[in-house]
Structure formats: structure tokens, C-alpha cells
């Protein structure tokens, strides 16, 4: 009887695990909404945001070096037309992203992370073997994985079944994933060679039986989509028994993973800064929010130990029994990133509906919008240099949706010119220094029309 009770108890807890366990979060090209895709900075941001893996793409240079890049033409990310397959690695390695980093080789990536065992990667072979019948890319990838002893820290996925079949011969124990955008690509000539299938969310939505069927065949199921942080899409995904999600927003994926696991507290252990304009009281815990007569002050540097989600809001633990709202604590911005935009006002871009958010989070959109032809003062900042959020009396606004309106004197322009490309916003309405002063309200429509031409 005792043995039977133990069996039932074990079964009960196994059911809890099945129904509440989370999924693998894969940062698609790192954390591309915050930093230039497929750079070390973007990869680090993805890992810091809770990604289990970072997905990266590989092309082969003309002299046989695997290069980390989604596009064969690097113009979109480096502003220089350079075809990876037509240039030597020496030439490609000189090109830089907006954050100042150089284009990476796979070997450089592995060398950088060699002593960080918790950093893991999904590598995509960007190859069409109907055009390129050679397998040099796969040969070089396998050789590099072995050289840096990364066999247990990489998964490889591809649209090319031939590419995966060749890698299975080179790396018999490798975890291989077939990427599919239609049911036609899932067949019994492909499936025996792979461990998992990375399926478009559209296919899953139209064929809900597919996850169960693939699991019966002992294949894991990853889902990819043009993830826009839609709450409806994420709620739908976490209620499916998927094994992993490939997303452009790893922080959001991590949030839903925690929700599925029933977890609210997680490690951060990063330095941050409180960017609030006024002091904020601390709390002993975020669940019963009794404010203490102790404060965190503007500009104060913090050691953010843990994140806690409570009441649908994020709080940071910054010391023992010391919690504050995460709304004005930043882990990615430095004072110089926001210096040129301090004390400026903003106005909606012409002919654009500008949504207002409760928090600097894409999932907190409200039904409100900025009024046209009206100025709003910037109260605060959050986000990252590439994805800056602005706080106003109405709520949070994305910097990409507005025009900065203010007096850009010589100091402002000096601060602006010193920014790396990633932090330079060009949507600026100039009312001083470059343009004569214009009465703010009467001539605002003319200013907007003139500035829109400048910004476009």
C-alpha cells in the first residue's frame, strides 16, 4: 500500500511538471530590438534577458570562413555593400555595426564565450545546395565546433535537409532541427535525421494536431514567428505543449516561460541605475507593498539582485528586504545615451498614430494616443540605446514614433555627435542653432511639415 501511494505521488508530481514546465527561449539573432542583431552586445542582452539559447546565421566567406550574418549582403547591418560569399574574411572583418562592433566569425564567437558554459547557441546554415553543391560550410562549422569543444552547447537548424544530413555524418551526436514553413516539408525522409522541427506559428495555428503528432514520433517542437509581443499570440503559444520558442523579444519569452513554470522570482545580478526624477520609497516586499521611510535617489547606482513579477508589474530587489518598481531602473542605458535628449519635448510624427503605454513594455499598450500638434515634456527614459522609451505625463512613448522638439544648443550637439550610431536618433525638430526660433504653437504645423522632410 505504501509503495502504491509513493507511485501515485510520483505520478502526481510528474503531471505537475508536464503541465507547468516551461519551454526553451531562443533569442532570434540575439536581442535585435535592443541592439544590432548578431553582435556580442545583442547576444549578451539576450542571455541577460533570460534566453536559454541565441540563434545565429552563418554564411561562408570567399576564403572559407564561417561568418555570422543573416544576410549575404551586409549593407542592411553595416551600411556597406559587401557580399559575404564574394569577399575574404580579412575584408569582411573590417566592417562595423552601429554599436561599433566588427562583423564576427564563428571562431571569434566561440572564443569570446569559451569560458561561459551557460551561453548556448542555435546555428543556422544559410545554404541552398541546389545552387551550391559543396558542403564546405558544414565542414567548416563542424571543425570549428570540435576545435572549441562546443558540441554540448550548440544546436544546428536549417531549411536545408541536405545540410542537416551532412552534419549528422560529421557530428553524429549533434542536436539537429529542421526549419519548416509548410506541412509539405515534414516527411519520413527528413524526420529520422533530426531531433526536432522548428515550425512556423502559422502552420501550428492551422494544424493544431501537429504538435501531438510530432511528439508521438519523439521529435521536439520549436515555434518561430515574426514575434511582435502580441499578448494574444504569446498566451496561445504557452497553452500549447511546445518545447521552444524562437523570438525577437527574449525578455518577453522569458516572462511567459516563468508564467508557465509558475515562477515569479528570478536571478539578474546586474548593475543598474535609478533614472527617476524624484526619490522613490523602497518596499520590504512587492506582494504587500508597504512603503518604508527609506528611499532610492535619482542617479543612484544599484546592484539589481533579482526580478519579481507581482500584480502584473516588475519589481527589482536591490538589497536584503529592499524592493523598488523596475519602471525607472535601467540596466542598459548610460547617462551619455540620453544626455542630448534631456529636457526636450516631443511631438507626434506627422500623419502617425502614436500609442501610449503604461510601462516601457510593448505588451502594456493602452487605447490612448498622443494628440497631434501638441508638445509633451520628456519626464524620463528607459529601454536601450537602439530602443529608447520616453516617459510623459500621459505614459510611455517609443522614441521612434515621435519628433524630439527642443533647443539643441552647442552642448546638446556635442553630446549628440559623441554618441555611437546606435544611440543617434535622427527624428529631431530643430528650433534653435540650426533653425531660427519659431513660436511653439502658432507655427508648429509648418515646423512639423518642414521637419518631416528632414527626418524622411
Question: How would you characterize the overall build of this protein?
Answer:
The protein is of the alpha/beta class and 456 residues long. It has 3 domains: 22-261, Phosphatidylinositol (PI) phosphodiesterase (TIM Barrel, Alpha-Beta Barrel), CATH 3.20.20.190; 265-330, SH3 type barrels; 335-455, SH3 type barrels (Roll). The protein has helices at 2-20, 40-48, 75-78, 89-92, 106-112, 136-147, 161-170, 201-206, 210-216, 231-238, 250-261, 335-338, 410-417, 444-455; strands spanning 24-28, 53-60, 66-68, 121-125, 154-158, 175-180, 196-200, 220-224, 244-247, 265-274, 280-283, 291-296, 301-310, 313-319, 322-325, 329-330, 345-348, 355-357, 365-369, 376-377, 380-383, 388-392, 395-398, 402-406, 428-430. The strands form 6 sheets. An 8-stranded parallel barrel has the order 1-2-4-5-6-7-8-9, surrounded by 5 helices. The protein has a 5-stranded antiparallel β-sheet with strand order 15-14-13-10-16, with no helix packed on it. Strand 1, helix 2 (40-48) and strand 2 form a beta-alpha-beta unit. The model is unreliable at 1-20, 433-445 and 447-456 (pLDDT under 50).
Key traits:
456 residues; alpha/beta; SH3 type barrels; 3 domains; 5-stranded antiparallel sheet; globular; disordered N terminus
Query: How many domains would you count in the coordinates?
Result: 3
Taking pLDDT < 50 over at least 5 consecutive residues as the criterion, the unreliable ranges are 1-20, 433-445, 447-456
- Describe the global form: globular
Estimated radius of gyration? 25 Å
Overall residue-averaged pLDDT value: 87
User: How far is it from the N-terminal to the C-terminal residue, by CA?
Assistant: 76 Å
Q: Indicate the CATH topology of the largest domain.
A: TIM Barrel
Structural class determined from secondary elements = alpha/beta
The overall strand count is 25
Put simply, the count of helices is 14
Strand content: 25-35%
In the CATH hierarchy, what is the class of the largest domain? Alpha Beta
Judging by the overall fold, what is the CATH architecture of the largest domain? Alpha-Beta Barrel
**Biggest sheet, in brief?**
8 strands, parallel, barrel
CATH superfamily of the largest domain: Phosphatidylinositol (PI) phosphodiesterase
Query: Helicity, in percent?
Result: 25-40%
Question: For the largest beta sheet, what order do the strands appear in spatially?
Answer: 1-2-4-5-6-7-8-9
Amino acid at each position: 500500500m505504501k509503495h502504491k501511494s509513493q507511485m501515485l505521488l510520483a505520478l502526481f508530481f510528474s503531471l505537475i511538471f508536464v503541465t507547468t514546465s516551461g519551454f526553451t527561449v531562443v533569442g532570434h539573432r540575439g536581442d535585435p530590438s535592443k541592439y544590432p542583431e548578431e553582435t556580442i552586445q545583442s547576444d549578451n542582452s539576450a542571455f541577460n534577458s533570460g534566453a536559454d539559447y541565441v540563434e545565429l546565421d552563418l554564411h561562408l566567406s570567399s576564403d572559407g570562413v564561417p561568418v555570422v550574418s543573416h544576410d549575404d549582403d551586409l549593407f542592411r547591418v553595416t551600411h556597406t555593400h559587401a557580399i559575404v560569399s564574394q569577399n575574404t574574411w580579412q575584408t569582411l572583418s573590417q566592417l562595423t555595426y552601429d554599436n561599433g562592433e566588427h562583423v564576427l566569425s564563428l571562431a571569434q564567437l566561440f572564443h569570446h564565450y569559451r569560458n561561459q558554459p551557460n551561453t548556448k547557441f542555435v546555428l543556422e546554415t544559410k545554404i541552398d545546395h541546389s545552387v551550391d553543391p559543396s558542403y564546405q560550410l558544414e565542414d567548416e562549422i563542424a571543425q570549428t565546433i570540435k576545435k572549441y569543444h562546443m558540441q554540448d552547447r550548440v544546436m544546428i537548424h536549417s531549411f536545408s535537409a541536405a545540410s542537416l544530413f551532412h552534419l549528422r555524418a560529421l557530428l553524429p551526436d549533434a542536436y539537429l532541427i529542421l526549419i519548416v514553413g509548410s506541412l509539405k516539408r515534414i516527411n519520413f525522409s527528413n524526420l529520422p535525421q533530426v531531433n526536432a522541427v522548428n515550425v512556423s506559428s502559422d502552420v501550428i495555428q492551422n494544424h493544431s494536431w501537429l504538435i501531438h503528432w510530432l511528439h508521438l514520433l519523439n521529435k521536439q517542437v520549436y515555434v518561430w514567428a515574426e514575434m511582435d509581443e502580441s499578448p494574444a499570440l504569446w498566451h496561445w503559444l504557452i497553452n500549447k505543449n511546445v518545447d521552444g520558442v524562437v523570438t525577437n523579444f527574449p525578455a518577453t519569452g522569458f516572462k511567459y516561460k516563468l508564467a508557465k513554470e509558475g515562477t515569479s522570482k528570478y536571478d539578474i545580478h546586474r548593475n543598474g541605475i535609478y533614472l527617476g526624477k524624484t526619490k522613490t520609497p523602497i518596499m520590504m516586499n512587492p506582494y504587500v507593498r508597504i512603503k518604508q521611510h527609506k528611499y532610492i535617489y535619482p542617479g543612484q547606482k544599484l546592484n539589481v539582485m533579482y526580478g519579481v513579477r507581482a500584480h502584473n508589474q516588475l519589481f527589482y530587489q536591490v538589497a536584503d528586504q529592499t524592493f523598488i518598481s523596475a519602471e525607472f531602473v535601467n540596466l542598459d542605458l548610460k547617462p551619455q545615451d540620453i544626455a542630448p535628449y534631456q529636457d526636450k519635448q516631443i511631438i507626434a510624427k506627422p500623419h502617425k498614430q502614436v500609442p501610449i503605454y503604461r510601462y516601457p513594455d510593448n505588451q502594456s499598450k493602452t487605447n490612448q494616443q498622443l494628440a497631434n500638434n501638441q508638445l509633451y515634456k520628456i519626464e524620463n527614459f528607459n529601454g536601450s540605446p537602439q530602443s529608447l522609451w520616453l516617459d510623459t505625463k500621459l505614459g510611455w512613448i517609443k522614441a521612434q514614433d515621435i519628433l524630439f522638439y527642443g533647443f539643441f544648443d552647442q552642448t546638446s550637439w556635442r553630446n549628440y555627435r559623441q554618441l555611437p550610431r546606435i544611440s543617434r536618433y535622427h527624428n529631431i525638430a530643430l528650433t534653435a542653432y540650426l533653425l531660427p526660433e519659431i513660436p511653439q504653437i502658432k507655427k508648429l504645423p509648418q515646423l512639423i511639415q518642414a521637419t518631416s522632410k528632414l527626418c524622411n
